[in-house]
Design a protein that fits this description.
The chain is mainly alpha-helical. The chain folds into 2 domains: 204 residues, no CATH class; 190 residues, no CATH class. The protein has 18 helices and no strands. Helix 4 packs antiparallel against helix 5, helix 10 packs antiparallel against helix 11 and helix 17 packs antiparallel against helix 18.
Length: 414
């Protein structure tokens, strides 16, 4: 056995980690720059629209993504399954685009923003399906290079447009960054070949029903998951206003999302490895991979939270420029960090239910948690502010983890 094969998890994790540190660094850098050059109010408006976009995107792509990870390697005719995936993506886009138009229109979005958002959704779906195929095949380098290109464009395009064409409104400029990031990412993955399948809702395919049955519950899971961009944003915006939403999201992205980005390599590498081990009935390697991942995740968390606590004054005051509310905002760091860690533990353990095809039960667990988040947020956020939402997130993560452990003990037999 070669060194690379023996330490497949560690080898691919290091590649993903390096790439994710770079891409997460770009995303972190975008927050204070966007606030500085576009304004806190405008950034808050963007956060509201972008959160909705991400939730719709997760819902429309999740069933395809999970289907690819679970079944792509089982199909010997790769050209056929890729063609079917393209068709599924286009069909899903048609439905989700109509929903996006309806929701954005409810927010009073103008026609320009609607066009940009719909185009962003189109390219994001194709981008995600293609990069997930790279993930399923454990092509770590391709995945990481593409992801770095995408997040770099997300930052560069808005700042360039602000400098060269300042007359464009802030919300349009920021969403153009979203659009171009997915356009160039999709073109890079397809080697600059444009493939547009025809719309065929009733066409005979082998994998569509299988993907839907397995992945549709996970799409619903991803819509509501706080790791995507949760419903707490709407409670905060309604209760405390757009500016407080912007500040909350800025701190959230630096703590919760940065740790999630560091932990993403586990999902990117571990999931296809676990599925491969499970399909091959290599159960001892399956358990070994889970246990090593839990250990590595915990070590990284301890390093991360230590650094976050030491740098909390720098993050809040000097980096984000929220010095006047630093005492309050710094209190969000610890609950955000623990919430992110617990969610990542739950996501890792829930692979047991995913390979057991118990995705509907996972979705029920998530819906229970989301209902709790909304009810508790409506009660406590107006009274105690942002800190209430942060600790509600920790509580919700703990509840979800307990439900996943319960489901694993009930269903997963290894």
């Amino acid at each position: 056995m070669s060194f690379k094969t023996k330490y497949k998890l560690e080898f691919n994790f290091i590649i993903y980690l390096i790439g994710k540190v770079i891409s997460a660094g770009v995303m972190i850098g975008s927050i204070p720059l966007f606030i500085k050059y576009f304004g806190i109010q405008e950034y808050g408006d963007f956060v509201l629209y972008y959160t909705t976009f991400l939730m719709l995107f997760a819902g429309s792509s999740g069933w395809i993504v999970q289907g690819i990870l679970r079944f792509y390697t089982l199909e010997k005719n790769k050209e056929k399954i890729r063609s079917e995936i393209n068709q599924m993506v286009l069909n899903s886009f048609v439905i989700s685009a109509l929903i996006l138009i309806g929701v954005f229109s409810y927010y009073d979005a103008d026609i320009t923003l609607l066009i940009i958002a719909v185009c962003s959704l189109f390219f994001s779906l194709f981008y995600t399906s293609k990069i997930t195929i790279e993930q399923a095949l454990l092509k770590s380098k391709n995945y990481i290079i593409t992801d770095i290109i995408r997040v770099s464009i997300f930052l560069i395009v808005p700042l360039s447009l602000k400098y060269f064409i300042p007359s464009i409104s802030a919300i349009h400029t920021l969403f153009l960054g979203v659009l171009f990031s997915y356009v160039l990412g999709s073109l890079w993955l397809s080697k600059f070949r444009i493939i547009i399948p025809t719309i065929r809702f009733r066409g005979k395919t082998r994998w569509r029903k299988i993907f839907l049955k397995y992945g549709l519950p996970l799409s619903l899971w991803m819509v509501f998951s706080p790791t995507t961009n949760g419903v707490d944003r709407y409670v905060i915006e309604y209760s405390l206003g757009t500016i407080m939403l912007a500040k909350y999201t800025a701190v959230f992205d630096i703590i919760f999302k940065v740790f999630s980005s560091i932990a993403i390599p586990f999902n990117n590498i571990v999931q296809p490895m676990l599925i491969q081990n499970y399909n091959e009935k290599n159960y001892s390697e399956y358990k070994k991979t889970v246990n090593k991942s839990l250990l590595y995740l915990t070590i990284i968390f301890l390093v991360f939270i230590s650094g976050a606590i030491l740098l909390q004054d720098f993050i809040i005051c000097k980096y984000l420029g929220f010095c006047e509310q630093s005492a309050m905002l710094s209190k969000l760091i610890i609950p955000f960090a623990f919430s992110s860690y617990i969610w990542q533990i739950a996501i890792l353990i829930q692979k047991n239910l995913e390979v057991s095809n118990k995705t509907i039960e996972m979705t029920i667990y998530m819906i229970v948690v989301v209902i709790a988040i909304v009810i508790l947020g409506i009660i406590f956020v107006p009274l105690y502010g942002l800190i209430a939402s942060a600790y509600i997130s920790v509580f919700a993560a703990c509840v979800y983890l307990l439900l996943i452990i319960y489901g694993t003990k009930k269903h997963f037999k290894l």
